[in-house]
Amino acid sequence: MAISRTPVFKRCNYLGIDPLVLGYSHKPSIRKAKTIRRRKQSVYARQLIEKQKLRFIYGVLEKQFRPIYARAEKIDGITGENLLTLLELRFDNAIFRLGLSTTRREGRQLINHGHLMLNGKRVRIPSVTLRVGDVISVQEKSIQAFRLRKLVQNRKIPGWLTFDEEKLEAKVVTLPVKSDIDYDITESAVVELYSK
What fold characterizes domain 8-27+40-87+183-194? Predict the structure, then answer.
């Protein structure tokens, strides 16, 4: 299995993403800020950067991203919004949105280690697409560890999820929409890139 080992802050700087979107707190550098002179970007370059931004935020490699895009095309509606919905409905992303992990990478690790359950069954696949009505819960052995660890503070739970802090249980209420997303993305540029 391929693993992305790109430096997070360098990549965020290149793509123009705030590291807080990924769950990282960034300390300002003490070095002198360099003025970067970049050429005017072509249309293709802007489309490619938007695609790379989406892939980097959700931690998805190209091999995984293409089938997700193909599914988004087949669903009725606007392809770009369908793509964002499918990416938001990933199991590892839902764990991050609930505040059970500080980053999506950590959420993926928690799932791989079997700490979380989906509809009462242990699921070890972070890329599982959630459906409306799915229940996410913490395994009994891990509940005490999650309570000691405390949930990530200042995390706003999106409208498409409900969370019970007593039971450490969440439910997918509706499908996510673009207004639930907390970063700037031009999904139409990704659709234009793939439709060439």
Answer: Ribosomal Protein S4 Delta 41; Chain A, domain 1 (1.10.1050)
β-strands 121-122, 116-118: how paired?
A: antiparallel
pLDDT score for 129: 92
DSSP tag of 57? H
CB count within 10 Å of CB 65 equals 19
Q: DSSP secondary-structure letter at 26?
A: -
Whole-number pLDDT of residue 142? 83
Give the CA dihedral 84, 26, 116, 98, nearest 10 degrees.
Answer: -60
Ranges of H-type helices in 59-171: 62-74, 79-88, 91-98, 104-112, 140-149
- For CA atoms 44, 45, 48, 54, give the dihedral sign: negative
pLDDT for res 147:
75
Q: What is the CATH number of domain 91-174?
A: 3.10.290.10
